[in-house]
Amino acid sequence: MSTSALSRPGERDRPLIKFIEIDWLFCLLLCLIAGAGGMIMFSVAGGSWTPWAAAHLVRFGLFFLLMIGLAMVDLRVWFLAAYPVYILGLVLLIGVELAGDVSKGAQRWLTLGPVRFQPSEVMKIGIVLALARFYHSMSAESAHFSWWLLVPVAMIGLPVVLVAHQPDLGTAILIGATGLAIMVLAGLSWRIIAAGVVAILVALPPFIMFVIHDYQRKRILTFLNPENDPSGDGYHILQSKIALGAGGFLGKGLGLGTQSQLNYLPEKHTDFIFAALAEELGFVGSVTVLLLYAGVIFMALRTASMSHSHFGRLGAAGVTATFALYVLINGAMVMGMAPVVGVPMPLLSYGGTVMLTVMIGFGLVQSARVHRYSEVTSGRGSLL
Hints:
Layout: H1 3-6, H2 9-12, H3 15-21, H4 24-44, H5 53-71, H6 75-99, E1 101-103, E2 106-112, E3 115-117, H7 119-136, H8 140-144, H9 150-164, H10 169-185, H11 190-210, H12 214-224, H13 235-246, H14 258-261, H15 273-306, H16 310-334, H17 352-370
Antiparallel strand pairs: 1-2, 2-3
Helix pairs in contact: 4-5, 4-15, 5-17, 6-7, 6-9, 7-9, 7-10, 7-16, 7-17, 9-10, 10-16, 13-15, 15-16, 15-17, 16-17
């Protein structure tokens, strides 16, 4: 379909044309990553589809269809939903504080009837949509430096504080870093960025010593020297490093990884699945998966750059930033380069909640591609 045809309202609104305009190579990369996750789960379960591999692949199939459906939704509808989704996320996070389920010392879950979920996952989407809508109506000069910047700072700070108090430091970091990434992409002054980096470096030591929980502080100190407690808090990092090194160049082969098969590697199907993959598929397999992730990130950023609306560009870029942070934090964690904070490898790790959030986000990315010629007003959300 030519660009001129796609730019005509009568053409671009046809469902078939929207379907064709989805980036199917991007979708293939997502399928390959999820498929690799299913393969490793099958292997570490002793060659069984249960309890992880089959559920992982079925969930991905359902969420993939959801992503395709969301890609067909006009970008202006996403614009209208931005603030309501953010407000809903805040209300649910407050609900967690008041009546959330407590599990393993953390209050992160909320039960509404038969549904039990983590409201922080709603906020991962809400913060991207809300900030993209806020900056859509802001001038470049104001986004660069103005008192209006206190508004997005407050929009980011509120959910970060609520999530950190649950406590869920990994998710709080993700939400905060995603929000800051959108501010930078919107044109934030480099002087403010530099001042913020200095302020964080100054505040970090007292924050670690006096603000975070004892177990979180212990995780950070253990990360600096895991050999001090090899059978306790340092166990996860040390076993992960052993699995990474044991794989060598080509790996031991599927089903032959001793760290995962003999259950030395903790959380082998969730947080440390990349270490299990590295042991069984080696350096070649690990780099291949990382290249798939790099391809997804590159193509999503390219899609963001194609959108004619500022909302579309920032929305797609914000989702991509969240995805990239997942990969960066989990990769650093399993390699012993960052503390263990419970951040999974997206689409590769087992877990429906994170996968759902990621696929909804990619629905927004594909909507920005399919509706890249849509003009979004900067007024009160009216549609052109």
